Amino acid sequence: MQLAEVGIRIGYFHEASDDYLRGMGVDRALLPSREAWRASYEADYARPVHERESYLLAWEMDDEIVGFSSADQITFGEEAFMHLHILHPDHRRSGMGTAFVRQSAAAYFRELELQHLYSQPNAFNVAPNRTLRRAGFRYVFTRPDMVASTINYPQPMTRWVLQAPPT
Ligand SMILES: CC(C)(COP(=O)(O)OP(=O)(O)OC[C@H]1O[C@@H](n2cnc3c(N)ncnc32)[C@H](O)[C@@H]1OP(=O)(O)O)[C@@H](O)C(=O)NCCC(=O)NCCS
Question: What is the position in ligand 1's atom list of the atom closest to the CA of 133?
Fold first, then answer.
């Protein structure tokens, strides 16, 4: 995702309903302001890749951005945690998420030189849990009271993992 496109991710969260955010375990009160969020991306995009705090990918179909993924909690050369979102409900549940998660994982392994890639959805959010399994991730555990990232509150979460492909 280009820096000029990060507004898509920021707007996705800021413009979502409370119900939609809750389904993903996100607390509106924890969202940075749009301005602060953009400024933090400007700083992060200026860093060399091995020092990045996050890494964003746009999911494109027919030259249109239909979704995005981000990786955070990055330990370059070791591990990171990925997130997955398709923007419009009409585009969900047709196999796109699985295809994009596979492509995103390949990009994270390559660009961040990872050994492991994790993803931790809300345990009751069926779509990402099924999608991660379908994309080849292995189930690790469910914990009742975890915080996945800075915009999440403590909640039941699952952990999924994908190992780096053999070189
Ligand atoms: C999560 C998401 C990216 C998955 O993409 P998608 O294109 O809908 O997924 P796919 O069509 O590739 O489906 C993959 C699997 O998930 C299942 N699935 C997808 N949406 C589902 C839903 N709402 N309810 C139940 N199962 C669902 C599919 O049936 C399929 O399961 P299978 O492998 O058992 O057949 C997308 O649904 C989304 O953006 N959801 C809203 C945002 C969100 O919750 N993100 C996760 C935050 S952690």
Answer: 33
